């Protein structure tokens, strides 16, 4: 078996920590990831970071309120789950009226 990790990154036009946490958590579950742990931190006076420890690797979100956007990164040893997450995130972003840029 070859060790391989797949990565994908997105920029979202939202800094709403509660919406980001809800959407990313739901989309990770829907995509088939196994969430082992979750940790988040609220910065003062503004900003938010959250990390999801996954059986398949990890996901993270970092907000940049001064620019009105957030950075999401997902690493996984399962390319198919990553593709699933991308589809769910694109759908959720459209429903939330967020603009999405893949980097």
Which properties best describe this structure?
alpha+beta, 6 strands, six-stranded antiparallel beta sheet, single chain, 103 residues
Describe it for me?
- By secondary structure, this protein is α+β, with helices and mostly antiparallel strands.
- The chain has helices at 17-31, 79-96; strands spanning 6-12, 35-42, 48-54, 57-64, 69-76, 100-102.
- A six-stranded antiparallel beta sheet has the order 2-3-4-5-1-6, with helices on one face.
- β4 and β5 form a beta hairpin.
- α1 (17-31) packs antiparallel against α2 (79-96).
- It is globular and about 45 Å long.
- It starts with 5 loop residues before the first strand and ends with a strand.
Task: Let me know the number of strands.
Answer: 6
Q: Sum up the overall morphology in one term.
A: globular
Q: Estimate the helix proportion, in percent.
A: 25-40%
Question: Structural class, please?
Answer: alpha+beta
Proportion of residues in β-strands: 35-45%
What sequence of helices (H) and strands (E) makes up the elements? EHEEEEHE
Q: Round the mean pLDDT to the nearest integer and report it.
A: 96
Strand adjacency order, main sheet:
2-3-4-5-1-6
Biggest pleated sheet:
6 strands, antiparallel
User: What's the tally of helices?
Assistant: 2
CA(first)-CA(last) distance = 28 Å
- Flag low-confidence runs: none
Radius of gyration, taken over Cα atoms and rounded to an integer in Å: 13 Å
Specify the oligomeric state.
single chain
């Amino acid at each position: 078996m070859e060790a391989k990790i797949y990565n994908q990154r997105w920029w979202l036009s939202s800094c709403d920590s509660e919406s980001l946490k809800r959407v990313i958590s739901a989309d990770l579950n829907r995509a088939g990831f196994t969430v082992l742990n979750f940790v988040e931190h609220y910065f003062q006076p503004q900003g938010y970071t959250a990390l999801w420890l996954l059986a398949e690797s990890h996901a993270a979100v970092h907000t940049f309120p001064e620019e009105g956007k957030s950075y999401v990164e997902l690493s996984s040893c399962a390319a198919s789950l990553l593709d699933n997450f991308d589809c769910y995130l694109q759908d959720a972003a459209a429903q939330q009226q967020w603009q999405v840029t893949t980097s």
